[in-house]
Amino acid sequence: MTANLFDILARSITDPAATAIETLAGEQISYGDLLRRTGQMANALAGLGVAPGDRVAVQVEKSVEAIILYLATVRAGAVFLPLNTGYTPAEIGYFIGDAEPAIFVCDPARAAELAVATESAGARIMTLDARGLGSLTDAADAAPADFATVPRVADDLAALLYTSGTTGRS
Fold first, then answer.
1. CA distance linking residue 63 with residue 79, whole number of Å
2. What are the residues whose beta carbons fall under 8 Å from the beta carbon of 44, sequence distance 6 or more?
3. Which SS3 state, helix, strand or coil, does residue 104 take?
4. How many structural domains are present in the chain?
5. Strand 55-59 relative to strand 28-30: parallel, antiparallel, unpaired?
6. Is residue 120 one of the residues assigned to a domain?
7. Which of the residue ranges 84-93, 143-152, 157-166 would you say has the lowest mean pLDDT?
8. CATH no. for residue 84?
9. What is the pLDDT of residues 104-117, one digit of tens each?
10. Pairing state between β 79-82 and 103-106
């Protein structure tokens, strides 16, 4: 049995038509849609060269698309690295240099200003905004929905979190 967090969630689904996510605006995403969209996103990540254990750095607004990206990252066996949307290019450069992600996902409006900080560390930039628009969504929309969740073991990383504690940089 896999210890992948996504599989644990998927096994608990009894009705694919039931609501998995409901936004404040009233948008509803069913469990079936969540499975489909995370499968497409996981296929897009794999198509971009993200392998199990790779880090996916993400600096996007809180949104349904961010949740889908998180679940797809875990489903693909990669490590989700959320970064505060208030970080400056210099701060992003530090985190990208330290974590060495395979890709960096940010809002399209910030891609140009963050390109130098991320590309010098070898991370490919993809974009995603709170409405679900961007190069990563374009790649996901073109990808198949079927994706076999990558098996993981209990000690594999699922997320990497930086804090602003007394000994860390943030």
1. 19
2. 72, 136, 139, 140, 142, 143
3. strand
4. 1
5. unpaired
6. yes
7. 157-166
8. 3.40.50.980
9. 999 999 999 999 88
10. unpaired
Cβ atoms within 10 Å, residue 19: 12
What gap in Å lies between CA 165 and CA 100, rounded to an integer?
A: 21
CA-based nearest residue to 39, from 62, 22, 16:
16
Average pLDDT over all residues of the chain: 91
Q: Is residue 75 part of a domain?
A: yes
Mean pLDDT of 31-43: 97
pLDDT in tens, 40-69: 999 999 999 999 999 999 999 999 999 999
Distance of CA 70 to the CA centre of its chain: 4
| Residue 168 or 46, more confident | 46
CB atoms within 10 A of CB 62: 10
What local confidence, expressed as pLDDT, does residue 8 receive?
Answer: 77
Q: Enumerate the β-bridge partners of residue 79.
A: 55
